[in-house]
Design a protein that fits this description.
2 copies of one chain form a homodimer. By secondary structure, chain A is of the alpha/beta class. The first copy, chain A, contains 12 helices and 18 strands. Chain A folds into 3 domains: about 240 residues, Acetylglutamate kinase-like (Carbamate kinase, 3-Layer(aba) Sandwich), CATH 3.40.1160.10; about 70 residues, ACT domain (Alpha-Beta Plaits, 2-Layer Sandwich), CATH 3.30.70; about 80 residues, Alpha-Beta Plaits. In chain A, helix 6 packs parallel to helix 8 and helix 11 crosses helix 12.
């Protein structure tokens, strides 16, 4: 008899029929002899509807009240899920973050989990109940309601699984698992059976719409096996564990596309008086994530040194404000922005990966008539920036070139 | 500088514009030098929508989870109200029942308030904030969420006003105040300026759609002045205090109509082996309110004694189950049900009331061709049951006969 944490996303709970289906999954796990903790997101689009309500009332709502508002979404789901399990003749109880003792810091709208109490959970599990817990929310030491940021219900689930020493954390969603590429772009993309935490993290960071990164980080840190699977089908999804690589594992696992990026370049006297480090620390303080940092020393007095990085277009406004202020303080420094870019990444693993994948990637793009704007590599990732309109063509060409549609037993064409 | 509790009902908060209007009322009271506590209901029809959701999921949802679900309605309102006050440049904070310490018993869906803590409220008021508290909900000693029953936001407001020693409890609603009759039935019904708690209680019990009875009972018990007024208009509403009667006060204050009643009659051996007291105690245990109890001794062996009472048609199913069981245990007892009745009541006060009002009521009904089914009187009420289709005609005739459209300074035609 084990302990399973099951997490159901908004699309898996969008109407009463789906709620009953989710309830049946929890009950089945219970009947299989497991203790079951269920984590629920808000139903369907209800979080967006609540945000719309807030925007109607205030252009800049206080974050504390925004959390009070948004947390009602999961509260509705958890009550309905408990009702559905009860209606099927099994005992269930919903517990709020305060009732569980799911403590966070006091950073409203982006709180971090600090501690989860086991007392009440153990008590209810011992009484034979299925426990329903709202994802995405917590409470600070004073009893203020907090939320963990969009998509953080996965984080709640994995953190609970870690604290409870669960045997498995199941993330039920509207896709069959994690794919070799976005099936919307590459129709014959293949579901991947197993992946390592690092691979999923890299894929998520590079645009794959998979499980929330913080959840995977929790999973990696505490060694929680995570199964991402479909709430509608009874098929196996993608199992995420510490290390998925073995002899059968192909070197290249998938390709990802991240759209709507911007390259910001500071040139002129960009190297003077700590401009770069000042900028980086200000961006970090505002929690703006940047990637693809490149620097070049001054080759002549006119061009000066330059320093560039990529950032999501939604962060551009904030980045511009910081850059403009810093460069105005320093004569000769200039800011240049190049919009409309995408990043294509190849995610791989193992010693065979780097050997030839970079060459193959560049060859493939060249054949497709695409000239990459910038190339970067890491232990398990090859990325390049390119014009946004060429992103999907590039993804399809790379998926084909690395033969990702073939079964994992097949050869990877490196 | 005083303390004011303001309560806004669902129709007063049904969209962002109305929320801002309610916020302006709170701010105005603050600017007038008062400390302000606001109690909010769920927006518009949101409680009904949540109930519909619950019914879709379960035919008989557990009451604990129903409370978890329903309480989200007020939580949405309280956050939006705090946002609206903040957007207008004033400090506000929403506090949940747990955060306030609004303790109830553990009777889910119909909990009773036991204790309200002042600590957090006093702290936030001293910091100059307008406090927003959800109506209708509380917490039991264990931290379980409870609700007080439909319409109980008024009760929360008056209970808070009592505990805080507020100078006034303002109930903002979608009507201008309490009227001499339902303006939907009697178009020239007149708003009443002042009423006593007892009069309002009698009117509410007899079908007037006014403030929730439990709220008025709280008000009477703790001497809280209650002002029922329109959230849309800036006119005076109806002030409810301990005693509104004085020389200027007319003897008859209003007429009310309560529809859809049923008379249940037990006859045959209805007096044997404590049938009546057994029935009354079972009805009380199920919290089924009955009125117009009449008993008659047996005049002959065939008719036997009989015992009848009136009950709302929504309770008929429960009442029948109890009656059938009790009569089956006793040979010769029969149950008869007469449906489709209404009760018309005349609410009055003072020594002039009883003297001639009963005669006038019966005369008026007779002139209108209505034969009352049963008449009952109390200190401040004359009531009679009559066929439902004659209810509105009776109300209009009585309103006219007692000259209730005249200003309160005018003579009451008794």
């Amino acid at each position: 008899m084990g302990l399973i944490v099951q997490k159901f996303g908004g699309t898996s709970l969008s109407d009463s029929e789906r709620i009953h289906r989710a309830a049946r999954r929890a009950i089945r796990a219970k009947l299989n002899g497991h203790r079951v903790v269920v984590v629920v997101s808000a139903m369907g689009r209800s979080t967006n509807m609540l945000l719309d309500l807030a925007r109607e009332v205030s252009g800049d709502p206080p974050k504390r009240e925004l959390d009070v508002l948004l947390s009602t979404g999961e509260q509705v789901s958890m009550a309905l899920m408990a009702m559905a399990i009860d209606a099927a003749g099994h005992e269930a109880i919903s517990l709020s973050a305060v009732q569980v003792g799911l403590f966070t810091d006091s950073a409203f709208t982006r709180a971090k989990i600090q501690r989860i109490s086991r007392t009440r959970i153990d008590e209810e599990l011992s009484a034979g109940r299925i426990i329903i817990i709202p994802g995405f929310q917590g409470t600070d030491a004073r009893g203020e309601l907090t939320t963990l940021g969009r998509g953080a219900s996965d984080t709640t689930a994995v953190a609970l699984a870690a604290v409870l020493g669960a045997d498995l954390c199941e993330i039920y969603t509207d896709v069959k698992g994690i794919f070799t590429a976005d099936p919307q772009i590459v129709p014959h993309a293949r579901k991947i059976d197993t992946l390592g935490y690092d691979e999923v993290l890299e894929m998520a960071a590079r645009g794959a719409k998979v499980t929330h990164s913080r959840a995977i980080e929790f999973g990696r840190k505490y060694g929680v096996p995570i199964h991402v699977c479909s709430s509608a089908l009874d098929s196996e999804g993608t199992m995420i564990t510490a290390d998925s690589s073995n002899l059968e594992t192909p070197a290249v696992r998938g390709v990802t596309l991240k759209e709507d990026l911007v390259i910001v370049t500071l040139s002129g006297n960009a190297d003077q008086s700590g401009l770069m480090s000042k900028l980086l620390s200000e961006l970090a303080a505002d929690e703006i994530g940047i990637t693809d940092i490149t620097t070049a020393q001054a080759v002549d007095r006119v061009a000066g040194a330059h320093f560039s990085f990529a950032v999501g277009s939604s962060d551009l406004r904030d980045v511009r404000i910081i850059c403009d202020r810093l460069t105005q303080e320093r004569s000769g420094a200039r800011v240049n922005v190049e919009e409309g870019l995408s990043k294509v990444s190849v995610v791989g693993v193992g010693s065979r990966f780097h050997a030839s994948a970079t060459a193959k990637m560049l060859e493939t793009l060249a054949c497709a008539g695409i000239e990459p704007r910038a190339v970067s590599t890491s232990e398990i990732i090859l990325s390049c920036l390119l014009p946004m309109q060429q992103g999907e063509v590039a993804i399809r060409a790379l998926h084909e070139a690395f033969a990702l549609s073939s079964s994992p037993q097949g050869l990877n064409a490196i």
